[in-house]
Amino acid sequence: MAKKIMIDCDVGVDDALALILAFHSPELKVEAVTGVNGNVPIEMVFTNIQKVLSLIKPKKKPLIAKGADRPLMGQPLYAHSVHGKSGLGEATIEMEEGQEWWKSFAGSADQLITRFAYQFPGELTLIAIGPLTNLALAILRDPKGFKKLKEIVIMGGAVRANGNVTPFAEFNIFSDPLAAKMVLKSGLPMTLVPLDVTHQVCLTPSLIEERIMPMNNPFSEFTIDAIGYDVQSRRFRRETDFIYLHDPLAVGVVIKQDLVKKERLSLDIETEEGDHFGQILKTEGTPNIEVCLEVDSKGFLDLFLTKLG
Ligand code: RIB
Ligand code: CA
Q1: Ligand closest to CA 10
Q2: For 148-177, what is each residue's pLDDT tens digit?
Q3: pLDDT tens digits, residue range 253-263?
Q4: In whole angstroms, what is the distance from residue 292 CA to residue 110 CA?
Q5: SS3 of 225, please?
Q6: Residue 246 designated active-site
Q7: How far is it between the farthest Cα atoms of the chain?
């Protein structure tokens, strides 16, 4: 029986790869995709969700909804340097006029989250791969509805690893630490997929040359353009030697639990301004989340590349 899931994302490059993986995994049934301000502004995130769905052409069209255009507090923080001007790197997807590979939901993302939680009580896994603003808004507006979710899987944070925005904080949490703090306190079964494991799953030039380029399909070509790999010079256009598959791993963990080793920890978030703003804090309280601290990198990369092919 396929797992019913919703994906809350800030389509960026690795979010797009996570969507491609999710829709090509018979283990999952993607009921909805919601957008949140993060890597790029919300309007661009929402357009990118539609573009990636136009590439995927899902048999069963998911509902899509637009969410928060800024964090609960403070200003939006974008990551165009990583995801490019459009949020999809160097990839371009032409959408056919009038052909919609989605069903539009009239309300906001947080309303769609609780709507589906009521519709499938205790059955819905919410995979959050952007800042957690939409989840926090759902908790604020309808805490009872939010609690009907089965579980939440979050790509975010850095527990023993360094951060990627500051030495202590990871982008999704740093973008809205107050939201992250609220989600951690929600009491739902939660799994955290932090940089500790996502920094162990990356696409390198040799993997691209040996495994992705020979695939010659629309998804492999999209991947090469989106991650900005230059096939002539055989290296990335951006100053980097590899691309981390942060968001695809959060989907991978839902497809195949044994890809990771988890530890139950009690975590909180630093929401005070200062050097540690947005840091994940281990506390003495009751454990509130399963944290992935080890990953079978080869196993995940095989799964990802097999589905991409
Ligand atoms: O820190 C990595 C996370 O931030 C990923 O979800 C990436 O898409 C960005 O949102
Ligand atoms: Ca993301």
Answers
A1: 2
A2: 999 999 999 999 999 999 999 999 999 999
A3: 999 999 999 99
A4: 26
A5: helix
A6: yes
A7: 55
Convert 66-81 to b/e letters by CB count within 10 Å (16 or more is b): bbbebbbeeebbbbee
List strands edge to edge, sheet with 124-128: 103-104, 63-66, 28-35, 3-9, 124-128, 151-155, 190-193, 289-295, 260-265
> Pocket residues for ligand 1 (CB within 6 Å)?
10, 12, 14-15, 38-39, 129-130, 155, 164, 170-172, 246-247
183, 177 contact by CB (below 8 A): no
pLDDT at 279: 98
Residue to mutate (ligand 1; options 246, 251, 253; most atoms within 8 A of CB):
246
pTM of the predicted structure, to 2 decimals: 0.98
Asked if residue 240 has pLDDT above 90, the reply is no
Residue nearest to atom 1 of ligand 1 (CA): 171
Collapse the DSSP code of 267 into the 3-class scheme (helix H, G, I; strand E, B; otherwise coil) and give the result: strand
AA identity, residue 286 = T
In which residue are the tokens 């994302």 written? 9
pLDDT digits (tens, 9 = 90+) for 19-76: 999 999 999 999 999 999 999 999 999 999 999 999 999 999 999 999 999 999 999 9
- Which segment of 177-181, 231-235, 274-278, 293-297 scores lowest on mean pLDDT? 231-235
Residue 104 CA, chain-centre distance (Å), reads 20
Identity of the residue numbered 84:
G
Rounded Cα gap, residues 278 and 290, in angstroms: 19
For residue 182, the model assigns a pLDDT of 98
Whole-number Å distance between alpha carbons of 275 and 129: 24
Which distant-in-sequence residues (6+ apart) come within 8 Å of 46 by Cβ? 35, 64, 66
Pair of tokens at residue 139 = 């908790």
Spatial CB neighbours of 179, under 8 Å, sequence gap ≥ 6:
71, 72, 131, 132, 133, 135, 136, 137
